[in-house]
Amino acid sequence: MQIGLIGLPGSGKTTIFQALTGVRSSISTSSKREAANLAVVSVPDERVDKLSEIFRPKRTIYSSVEFTDVAGLQGVDTARSKGFSSTFLAAARNVDVLGIVVGKFLPGSDPQAELEEIELELNLADLSVIQKRLERLNSEISKTPAARRVELEKERELLQRLEQALTNDKPIRELEISADEEKMLRGYGFLTAKPAFVILNVAETEASKQDLDLHLNLPTVQVSGIIEAEIAELPPDDAKAFLEDLGLREPGINRVIKTAYDTANLISFFTVGEDEVRSWTIKSGATAVEAAGVIHSDFARGFIRAEVVHYDDFIRVGSLAEARRQGLLRLEGKNYIVKDGDICHFLANV
Ligand SMILES: Nc1nc2c(ncn2[C@@H]2O[C@H](COP(=O)(O)OP(=O)(O)OP(=O)(O)O)[C@@H](O)[C@H]2O)c(=O)[nH]1
Ligand SMILES: [Mg+2]
């Protein structure tokens, strides 16, 4: 799962990215450091901390997501004021989720207007792809015998529906799209179809303020990029003291990571034991057999059943044995929908 940071030039994308990685890198000016534009970030989860305290395993592994500083990918700035460059857009099409950075740290900044400008750019980019494809489809259809037109006509109908929505400023993600239609659209990487959230980059003086005085039409998380980047560079003890001074319990960047995770519609399930306590990532709605497949494809192929207890129940009763005694540790089959916070043990024929 890759989350792309996008936004207007100077909104603070690279600063936020540095806060996420905890390392400095001159991302917006260097094309030779592509690797530095990709950060694998652990998803903070107090439940995993707690499970690790209880099981004292050799290894504790958190779920992770990847962030990329999209503008850094081509090593050049996005074009100022006249829309996003085509290289930037091409890079953005490859990410799964958009983290839209909106700068609110300069006096006179207007986040609402900035977000609207970005949304308009994304909208126009999608429209342009659609219109080009429609032109080609029209000529293809006219050359195709009637009997073989069905698929092409279906695609045309769908694209016309999207065109109509975008023309009315409605992003594709807000439309009802069937599973079949989604398959048809997969190759396009439409930007307004991607789940998106807003990172409101506020001034240092507002670093500890968490209530938003602004209501954007996307999930929004508020941080001060500069402060967060500083915190990320401090040794843990200093960082803790700094956070206390600010009146914060944890780095604000954690909220960015969690919001990204939620926006991507991801949930975590856990596996526990003396060797390893681990958090795994699945799409919300995934079944037990799909969850098993995330651990190992053999577990999916040879799936027999899952033993499941929810984290909350486990913590309440204190041990797996007690959970079993109370019937809280259940056996579930292939089609069980795994819940966020389930502790799972898969039995498989491998
Ligand atoms: N005062 C203040 N300055 C900030 C904050 N966040 C970023 N800046 C400054 O704004 C400038 C641009 O920040 P970047 O993180 O490079 O912005 P960017 O979005 O990566 O910019 P481009 O890559 O050029 O599009 C830098 O000089 C930052 O130091 C903030 O929270 N407060
Ligand atoms: Mg940058």
- Give the overall shape: flat
The hetero compounds bound to this protein are: guanosine-5'-triphosphate, magnesium ion
How far is it from the N-terminal to the C-terminal residue, by CA? 28 Å
Q: Overall pLDDT, averaged?
A: 88
Strand order, biggest sheet? 2-4-1-5-6-7
Unreliable segments (pLDDT under 50, ≥5 consecutive)?
23-35, 73-81
Oligomer: single chain
Q: Approximately how much beta-strand content do the residues carry?
A: 15-25%
CATH class of the largest domain: Alpha Beta
Helix content estimate: 40-55%
Descriptive account of the structure:
- One of its GO terms (cellular component) is cytoplasm.
- The protein is an alpha/beta fold.
- It has 3 domains: 2-47 and 61-109 and 194-263, Rossmann fold (3-Layer(aba) Sandwich), CATH 3.40.50; 111-193, Obg-related GTPase Ych/YyaF, coiled-coil domain (DNA polymerase, domain 1, Orthogonal Bundle), CATH 1.10.150.300; 285-348, Beta-grasp domain (Ubiquitin-like (UB roll), Roll), CATH 3.10.20.30.
- The chain has helices at 13-21, 46-55, 70-73, 86-93, 111-143, 150-167, 179-185, 225-233, 236-246, 252-263, 288-295, 297-301, 311-317, 320-325, and strands at residues 2-7, 38-42, 59-61, 64-69, 97-104, 196-202, 220-223, 266-271, 276-283, 303-310, 330-332, 342-348.
- The strands form 3 sheets. The chain has a 6-stranded mixed beta sheet, with helices on both faces. It has a 3-stranded mixed beta sheet with strand order 3-9-8, with helices on both faces. It has a 3-stranded antiparallel beta sheet with strand order 11-10-12.
- Helix 1 (13-21) packs parallel to helix 8 (225-233) and helix 5 packs antiparallel against helix 6 (150-167).
- It is flat, with a radius of gyration of 23 Å.
- Residues 23-35 and 73-81 have low confidence and may be disordered.
- The structure holds guanosine-5'-triphosphate (GTP) and magnesium ion (MG).
- Residues 13-14, 27-28, 71-72 line the site of magnesium ion (MG).
